[in-house]
């Protein structure tokens, strides 16, 4: 008799062929045959307490490893619970596959348990969404979904697999199990456009570059570093591009970005759309020459005219531009010293102006003091995660990761609740790294029960909660629009001792009200070797400048 194989085992074989070594899931009757296949294929199954966490963890895993993440959830509410995680990955250009269960094909349109039109719901927020129609096609369509994840700018895919398709067994020889089906997606960019960029670089007196998330997506760190050093260009970083240059590098700038975007004659934007974070492109000088480099043609020139757009891999394009400019740059590199010094002066002035806040001994604790202590605490091996509103806006000004790929935030969807899942994925994927996550108390409340998952799977991390008992970013907007008398409608939380919550579940927890105790508490959390929560009570009457400058409140 020929060997037979079930649909669930075909899923596992397809995941293994893609290099997936872990799935994040919450169990359901529709999907358990996938678990059985994962056991046979040596794929770890991490079961969480909410499907949103499973999807966020798959997203986080992809960001850390460069491989696609995978979440597996049951039908109906299991899949709808994961929608937020998929939507976040879609806006953040993160490659992941969500597999959702579905009622049996034999019960199609009969009202089976948890039946919903999942594909219709997922299509607008994925690069690919489909139903697997037969057991023979399971592995084939899984590989198809993974291919689509990496077409152009990366993103998520979704598959629903009916229960009878998963459970059925077929002769192994009838199943197509692709093993070698992926080609390189790295595009070098238009050679003529790269030559034009080289000419711009040769003549620019005050250039600057913004290194965005796609620098990390493309694993283009070395190319970016060679580019800015070889051409003596000041570099600013955002999103996952943070850490491309270490703090203290002469080409690393942070606090003078607005000044640079106003005064520069050449601005190169790499892997960053002109969305709300960039003022839809209006923050760039109208007289500057603007170059945009991106993986996705649709992003180039969106919301703002540009002088040159180049579509392709950030690393290959920057390397090509450096090589092309090398023979014609002349003494321009040396002449840029005055521009670098000018920016460094602005940078130093901004830092010194804020430093008293960062060293503040005030009671309640100034949020600037908290994020300053976190920044001082980070090592070259600490992956930093931000999950929150106002408190994370503070951290974006101060916290500087010391290595590439060591900064994680939700991305442009602005999703709260990613922190626990990102910490889970980061630690599971890189157990040699320390993981530190800064939460707002509102953000932690959304997915905080998965702290227990961290305990259960022995995934130690350092969690810090900036606790002001409020959704303070929203509170500020309400105060501005409606006055202080109506500032606390629908945004005020309880005074929760989250350190005690951590201890209740078996982790390390502390409450901190004295700013001098922040550093020692972080060190004790590091030494505990456990999942930890340091609950730091910060001043609720202080708002981050980024919160006060949000366009929605103007």
TrEMBL record:
Protein's UniProt keywords contain Disulfide bond: no
InterPro entries, A to Z: DHS-like_NAD/FAD-binding_dom, THDP-binding, Thiamin_PyroP_enz_cen_dom, Thiamin_PyroP_enz_TPP-bd_dom, TPP_enz, TPP_enzyme_TPP-bd
Domain Thiamine pyrophosphate enzyme central, first and last residues per copy: 194-319
Entry keyword annotation includes GTP-binding: no
Pfam families linked: TPP_enzyme_C, TPP_enzyme_M, TPP_enzyme_N
Cofactor(s) required, per the database record: thiamine diphosphate
Stretches assigned to the Thiamine pyrophosphate enzyme N-terminal TPP-binding domain: 6-115
Span of domain Thiamine pyrophosphate enzyme TPP-binding: 387-536
Keywords on record: Thiamine pyrophosphate
Family: Belongs to the TPP enzyme family.
Record's protein name: Thiamine pyrophosphate-binding protein
């Amino acid at each position: 008799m020929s060997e037979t194989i079930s649909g669930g085992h075909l899923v596992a074989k397809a995941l293994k062929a893609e290099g997936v070594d872990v799935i994040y899931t919450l169990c359901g009757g529709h999907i358990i045959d996938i678990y059985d296949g994962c056991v046979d294929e040596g794929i770890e199954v991490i079961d969480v307490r909410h499907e949103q966490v499973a999807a966020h963890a798959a997203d986080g895993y992809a960001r850390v490893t460069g491989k696609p993440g995978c979440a597996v959830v049951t039908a109906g509410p299991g899949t709808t619970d994961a929608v937020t995680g998929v939507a976040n990955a879609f806006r953040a250009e993160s490659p992941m596959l969500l597999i959702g269960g579905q009622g049996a094909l034999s019960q199609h349109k009969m009202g089976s348990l948890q039946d919903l039109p999942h594909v219709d719901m997922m299509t607008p927020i994925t690069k690919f969404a489909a139903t697997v129609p037969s057991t023979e096609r399971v592995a084939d369509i899984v590989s198809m979904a993974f291919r689509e994840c990496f077409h152009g700018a990366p993103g998520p895919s979704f598959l629903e697999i009916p229960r009878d398709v998963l459970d059925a067994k077929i002769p192994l020889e009838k199943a197509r199990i692709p093993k070698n089906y992926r080609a390189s997606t790295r595009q070098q960019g238009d050679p003529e456009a790269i030559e034009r960029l080289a000419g711009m670089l040769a003549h620019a007196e005050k250039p600057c570059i913004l290194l965005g998330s796609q620098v990390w997506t493309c694993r283009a760190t070395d190319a970016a570093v060679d580019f800015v050093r070889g051409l003596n260009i000041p570099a600013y970083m955002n999103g996952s591009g943070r850490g491309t240059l270490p703090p203290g590098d002469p080409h690393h700038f942070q606090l003078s970005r607005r000044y640079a975007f106003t005064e520069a004659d050449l601005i190169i934007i790499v892997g960053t759309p002109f969305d709300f974070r960039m003022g839809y492109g209006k923050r760039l000088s109208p007289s500057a020459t603007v170059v945009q480099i991106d993986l996705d043609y649709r992003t180039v020139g969106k919301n703002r005219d540009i002088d040159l757009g180049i579509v392709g891999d950030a690393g290959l394009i920057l390397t090509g531009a450096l090589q092309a400019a090398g023979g014609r740059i002349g003494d321009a590199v040396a002449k840029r010293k005055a521009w670098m010094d000018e920016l460094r002066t602005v940078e130093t002035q901004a830092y010194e102006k804020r430093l008293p806040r960062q060293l503040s001994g005030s009671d309640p604790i100034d949020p600037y003091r908290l994020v300053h202590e976190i920044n001082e605490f980070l090592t070259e091996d600490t992956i930093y995660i931000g999950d929150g509103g106002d408190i994370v806006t503070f951290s974006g000004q101060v916290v500087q990761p010391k290595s590439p790929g060591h900064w994680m935030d939700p991305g442009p969807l602005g999703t709260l609740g990613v922190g626990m899942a990102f910490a889970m994925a980061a630690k599971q994927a890189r157990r040699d790294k320390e993981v530190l996550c800064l939460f707002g108390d509102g953000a932690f409340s959304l997915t905080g029960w998965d702290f227990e998952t961290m305990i259960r799977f022995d995934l130690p991390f350092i969690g810090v909660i900036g606790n002001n008992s409020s959704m303070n970013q929203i509170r500020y907007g309400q105060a501005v629009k409606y006055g202080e008398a109506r500032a606390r409608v629908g945004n005020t939380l309880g005074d929760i001792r989250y350190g005690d919550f951590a201890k209740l579940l078996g982790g390390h927890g502390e409450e901190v009200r004295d700013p001098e105790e922040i550093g020692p508490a972080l060190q004790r959390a590091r030494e505990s070797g456990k999942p930890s929560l340091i609950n730091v009570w910060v001043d609720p009457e202080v708002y981050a400048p980024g919160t006060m400058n949000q366009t929605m409140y103007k």
